[in-house]
Each structure stands twice: as structure tokens, then as C-alpha cells.
Design brief:
By secondary structure, the chain is of the alpha/beta class. Helix content is 36%, strand content 22%. It comes from Streptomyces niveus.
Length: 301
């Protein structure tokens, strides 16, 4: 199976052939993968060099001409470093575009903390009007990239080396019910689904799958937890723990409720390790999730 990033390259290469409105904007990273399509469309594959603020600013400028920029690099260089340009050159100017990140929270531990971005979605939450997709499989990534490329809005697609075994049908809106139960709900975001399903096996709780987290599907969460007693929800995200708890609280504001946000901790892990070791260190492995979910939800055993 190809990776999400490889699928990004193949999908965008085809879309550049199909849609003259699209342009891919890069900052060295990923340029080699687009060499072939660049020969066919030399003015629509743009490498600005290692200048991430310019990367996003150029994307905003391209959008002002009526084109649809697809801006790509590591999440830490796409959202964190040029955040002012994301805020002003897209949001303040009122133009749309697609930011496509790689690297996730800890996909390449050897790159160190400079190449990790567990706070990217939380940071985008400070801005208005961004749709955020977090696919859990390359097939889902392709579907969401195609959807994003066709639109005119502001979209962030968060690609990761972590994947689920199988893809689910994604539409770019709403959560999917993967398992039904009678005691609360666990929302698994993107590549967290397989571990959540394994961790909740045999527990009497509903599992929702969220490949799109913004807008947050509060209606689906509300239906899953029900209207009687104290509503309980656990949100398992592959980035900063608690990023979506405020959205869940808002969805459940008129009923007594408890929400537990699980994800990447704030403490910086200063050893490289491997990706699976980072998952375990943040309590996102199957064993840790089982203990944390069953310890929080009442009546699930």
C-alpha cells in the first residue's frame, strides 16, 4: 500500500492535468516527486525554496488571481512557522486554498521537535473558516484531496505516516458510526481508529470515526451519547490532547456531560525513538487506550 504522501503526489499530478485552475506550491520538500508533472505544467508547479513564509504568501497571492493553490510541506513549516501568513494572506484577504501537510505529530522522530507539530489543528482553531480533514488511509486522503481541490474555501489536509488497515467512505462532512453501544461514545480521529477499535473491543460503547474534524459534527456526538443521564464522550486525536474538547462541550452544552480528550501530551519527548514508541509514550497505544477509556466511561464493561 502506498503512503498518504505518495497518494498526494499521484492524485495532485492527475488533478494538475485535469484542472488548469490548480497550482502546487512547494518549499523544496516534495519537489522531486513532481518533476514529471512539472515538465507538462512548468508554470503550475512552483518551488519557492526553503522560505516557508513565502510559501504560504505565494499561495495567497495565487489565490487572489482566481487560481486554487495547493500548498505543501511538513506541518511544522506549513502552519506553525508561517502562521502570520496563514492568518493574513488567506484569512484576512478572504481567499481560499488547500494546505496539505506531512509529518504529523511525530511521524519522523529522528527529525526532532522542529519536524513535529502536535499543535497544528489547535492553532488553526484560532482562525475562522478552515475545514480540517484528517484522513486515516491513503484512499481517504485521495477522496478528501479531490474534494478540497474542487472547492473555493480554506482547507487543511493533515497527512500522516500512520494509517488504518482499511479505508472508510468519506464525504468531507460528518462522523461515521463504526460501532454502536449503550454507554457513551469514543470519537476516533483519522489514523487513531484502528487502535480505538482494538482498545474498545467488547466494551458497550459507541465508536464514531472522524476523518473531518472541522466543522466538528456535534449532532453525531449528541445522538451517540443520548439524552438521558450524564452524557460521556472520549475524543482520541493524533495531535494535541484536548484540541476538540471545547467543540464537544459546546455540542453537549444543554445536557450534563463529561468529556475526556486524549492525544499528544504537551511534554516534549527528547529522545528520537520510533513512531510506535511515541504513540505509547503519549498513551495512544491499544493497551493504554483501553485502560483510559474503560476507566472514564461508566457502565461499559
Amino acid at each position: 500500500m502506498d503512503t498518504m504522501r505518495e497518494r498526494f503526489v499521484s492524485t495532485m499530478s492527475r488533478l494538475l492535468d485535469e484542472d488548469p485552475r490548480l497550482a502546487v506550491v512547494l518549499a523544496v520538500i516534495g519537489h522531486e516527486s513532481f518533476r514529471e508533472v512539472e515538465r507538462r505544467h512548468p508554470h503550475r508547479v512552483i518551488d519557492v525554496g526553503i522560505r516557508e513564509q513565502l510559501l504560504v504568501g505565494a499561495g495567497g497571492g495565487i489565490a487572489l488571481t482566481g487560481m486554487r493553490p495547493i500548498v505543501h510541506t511538513f506541518a511544522s513549516f506549513l502552519v506553525e512557522r508561517p502562521f502570520e501568513q496563514v492568518k493574513l494572506d488567506f484569512g484576512h484577504q478572504g481567499v481560499g486554498g488547500v494546505l496539505v501537510s506531512a509529518g504529523g505529530s511525530y511521524d519522523w522522530p529522528a527529525g526532532g521537535f522542529t519536524h513535529m507539530s502536535p499543535g497544528d489543528v489547535a492553532l488553526l482553531d484560532t482562525l475562522d473558516g478552515w475545514t480540517v480533514h484528517v484522513p486515516g488511509h491513503p484512499d481517504e486522503a485521495e477522496a478528501l484531496l479531490r474534494l478540497a481541490a474542487k472547492g473555493d474555501d480554506r482547507v487543511y489536509v493533515r497527512l500522516s505516516a500512520q494509517t488504518n488497515v482499511r479505508a472508510l467512505p468519506v464525504t468531507g462532512a460528518g462522523f461515521l458510526t463504526v460501532r454502536e453501544g449503550n454507554h457513551g461514545a469514543v470519537v476516533a480521529v483519522g489514523p487513531m481508529l484502528d487502535n480505538v477499535l482494538a482498545a474498545t473491543e467488547g466494551l458497550d460503547t459507541t465508536v464514531l470515526y472522524a476523518p473531518t474534524v472541522r466543522p466538528f459534527d456535534g449532532a453525531a456526538l449528541r445522538r451517540a451519547v443520548g439524552d438521558t443521564g450524564a452524557a460521556e464522550a472520549v475524543i482520541v486525536e493524533p495531535y494535541l490532547a484536548g484540541t476538540s474538547t471545547a467543540a464537544a462541550d459546546e455540542a453537549l452544552a444543554d445536557v450534563p456531560h463529561r468529556v475526556l480528550g486524549l492525544g499528544v501530551g504537551r511534554r516534549e519527548l527528547r529522545k528520537y525513538g520510533e513512531m510506535d514508541e511515541h504513540l505509547t509514550a503519549h498513551g495512544l497505544d491499544v493497551r493504554s487506550l483501553r485502560a483510559r477509556v474503560s476507566g472514564f466511561l461508566t457502565g461499559v464493561a
